[in-house]
């Protein structure tokens, strides 16, 4: 009887957690089809907010900058972070501990501290190299705060590798670069992909660092939504958020379906 009660309570607890997580998203999706601008009343079903979304140049420009900066910064951060993770993994003793602690600092540091420090750095660059705040500074800022997350995603995969894997490849005649490209990187590919996805999500979601490092004419979705907060969030944002959630859900289902098919073929 006690075991049955524990099973029921654990399932109920899990259901409540999922309701708490996804109820706000469900409300957002429902009101993206609401004919009223107010989320307090339901005036009927409509698709006009989606139509207005694709005709709102300001939101589309912010989306363009958001996706562009997220993709570019994630790719660059993934390359730098993967190389850095391999270097940290090969380090030994006290030097490795120092490098790991240095990498932990940006992750544990509050975003506002990182944003203000990067802003101060770019002000120095502006006085020396005439670097203006805008797309370049925001991109550099996103690359900077994404790199530690990539390193933390790749390092566990490197630790799982057999210790003599690279030496075996070198003994069989592979050059160091060939061993890296054909032996090491394929083995740690899941960690690299995870690091890229985390970097992409962090970049799309970021507000504080973007706010302090952007310039006139360059804005992303988080800054654009924050600027709307004083006047009220436009229903087009609900429509955009619904589309973004749908894209992520479809990609997730596709990846899980692909892994299931590959796993089934491997078993056969």
From TrEMBL:
<feature type="transmembrane region" description="Helical">
    <location>
        <begin position="12"/>
        <end position="33"/>
    </location>
</feature>
<keyword id="KW-0812">Transmembrane</keyword>
<dbReference type="GO" id="GO:0005886">
    <property type="term" value="C:plasma membrane"/>
</dbReference>
<feature type="domain" description="ABC transmembrane type-1">
    <location>
        <begin position="63"/>
        <end position="255"/>
    </location>
</feature>
<dbReference type="InterPro" id="IPR051789">
    <property type="entry name" value="Bact_Polyamine_Transport"/>
</dbReference>
<dbReference type="InterPro" id="IPR035906">
    <property type="entry name" value="MetI-like_sf"/>
</dbReference>
<comment type="similarity">
    <text>Belongs to the binding-protein-dependent transport system permease family. CysTW subfamily.</text>
</comment>
<feature type="transmembrane region" description="Helical">
    <location>
        <begin position="237"/>
        <end position="255"/>
    </location>
</feature>
<dbReference type="InterPro" id="IPR000515">
    <property type="entry name" value="MetI-like"/>
</dbReference>
<feature type="transmembrane region" description="Helical">
    <location>
        <begin position="107"/>
        <end position="129"/>
    </location>
</feature>
<feature type="transmembrane region" description="Helical">
    <location>
        <begin position="135"/>
        <end position="155"/>
    </location>
</feature>
<keyword id="KW-1133">Transmembrane helix</keyword>
<keyword id="KW-1003">Cell membrane</keyword>
<keyword id="KW-0813">Transport</keyword>
<dbReference type="Pfam" id="PF00528">
    <property type="entry name" value="BPD_transp_1"/>
</dbReference>
<feature type="transmembrane region" description="Helical">
    <location>
        <begin position="62"/>
        <end position="86"/>
    </location>
</feature>
<protein>
    <submittedName>
        <fullName>Spermidine/putrescine transport system permease protein</fullName>
    </submittedName>
</protein>
<keyword id="KW-0472">Membrane</keyword>
<dbReference type="GO" id="GO:0055085">
    <property type="term" value="P:transmembrane transport"/>
</dbReference>
<feature type="transmembrane region" description="Helical">
    <location>
        <begin position="191"/>
        <end position="212"/>
    </location>
</feature>
